[in-house]
Specification:
- Strands 1-2 form a two-stranded antiparallel sheet.
- It has three domains: 37 residues; 77 residues, Orthogonal Bundle (Arc Repressor Mutant, subunit A); 40 residues, no CATH class.
- With 168 residues, it is mostly helical.
- The protein is elongated, with a radius of gyration of 22 Å.
Amino acid sequence: MSRSEQTERDELIARFGAFQHDTENRQLNKSLSTLLDLPLTVKQLKVLGIIIIREGKATAQQLGDTLGITLATVSGIVDRLVEQGMVRRTADATDRRVRHLVPTESGQAVVRQLIVTEPELRRTVFHLMSMEDLRALVQGVEALGRAMFLADEDDAEPAAPAGAPTPA
């Protein structure tokens, strides 16, 4: 890569970073309002998040271990989440003593509200863009997705020691 290409790359990355920062600041108020309106405590939100991440394979014991809290505390938090319709308990197929915690649609919707891009963005902002700009945006986002995938693959492979031969 030539020096001028590297300079342009650095400038484009800086411009994107500034845009991202401005966009995050604009979305901050919306996200905070949503967070403050939630009918959940911070602990309940953490528990619900872990249950969603584990895709229905979470147990009270695992939650307690992950959060460093007692089983009794986990039980109380889960009871309130069940009462609010955010989580349900299901029996393990092989051990009836074990109960798995599964997020409900309502529980997933609450978390989705906090972290997923607002649908209004797709309905309003994108419709204000020219077709040329929208195509360029989609192309750029797809390229970003590919680069993120490659970066994840690179992180998954241990780095070879300096000077070591690379596998063919």
